[in-house]
Amino acid sequence: MTPKRTKALTTKEWNRINAASAYSQERVAGKLSEALVLATDARKEQRLAIHLCPCCYYQGASFAGQGFTEWKCILCETKGMYPNTAVPLICDTCSDSFDLCRSCGGTLDMTRKTSYDKRVKRTK
Ligand SMILES: [Zn+2]
Ligand SMILES: [Zn+2]
Questions:
Q1: Residue 56, Cβ neighbours under 10 Å: how many?
Q2: pTM over the 0.85 mark
Q3: Which residues lie at CB < 5 A from ion ligand 2?
Q4: CA 95–ligand 1 middle distance (angstroms)
């Protein structure tokens, strides 16, 4: 057991404590509003416009190196160049046709489909 401090805290110490509390409160508020954006899919239109699932879109861009990188769609094997090293897995055409996330290759609504769904899916 450490002995208890008996001396009262100074104003300066309180200021520091309060600043830390305010900062923590802000961070929690920030996390909560981020969670709300994710939970409600608040930017769905912008997200779908760039062919990303909620997981890939809201978690933000992964660390990407600079420089054009060659990549190939895992479905149709179309080759392309990408402005950084965080290359997509799926091209826009395949993403559009099968409603897939171009970044992780899952479905845009993150649900698992059966092969039956795939047959009825192709709408475009
Ligand atoms: Zn493709
Ligand atoms: Zn994704």
A1: 22
A2: no
A3: 53, 56, 101, 103-104
A4: 7
